[in-house]
Write a structure and sequence with these properties.
It contains eight helices and no strands. By secondary structure, it is mainly alpha-helical. InterPro entries: Homeodomain-like_sf, HTH-type_TetR-like_transc_reg, HTH_TetR.
Length: 199
Amino acid sequence: MRQKLIEAALHQYSLHGYHGATMRKIADEVGIKPASIYFFFENKEELFIAAFEQLLQAHFQAMQTVLAENEDHPVEEIFSKMLHGIASHHTGDMQGTIAFISLVTSPIPEIDSYLKKYMLKFNNWLIDSLQTLIKQDYPTISDQEVDRIIKQYVLIGNGVFWGINLYEGESFKEQVELADSLIQSLFIGLDKKEKETIS
């Protein structure tokens, strides 16, 4: 029942936002009385923190899985796989993605601190992971260049994430491929610099 309540909370949030996703609507979707929710969650805030925790953790695990499955590949291929992983994860769970977009664009005071902690944790993991991978393949690269590459990747990845809400079908696939081309061009530039440094 707890999991059903979390799923109903995310569904109602994606339809109505935090304030519109009432305990009554959530209870009705699950088929119980509103008062029964309080056997599982102390209040609405606790229910939604649990729901968003599940949503964000699923995103984190998806990215960790993509990285783990490709960590032995060339770094430019890893970046490409992670970009496609972002697209695949979010298009595969549109209800969760709509809720995620709503959460990011209009943080709720009660949930805001949790979201900030999650984003800090995720960004630190991403930066640490990508720094290590880049330096393995490009040992002469400067820290400033690594930082620049990662920031460009994050910018491109964010564009793909927001594009999910703007494009559909083949149009979205085209956007992902164009984003991937931008990322590959970053590494073409690094290859040239690396060869010049070695020679």
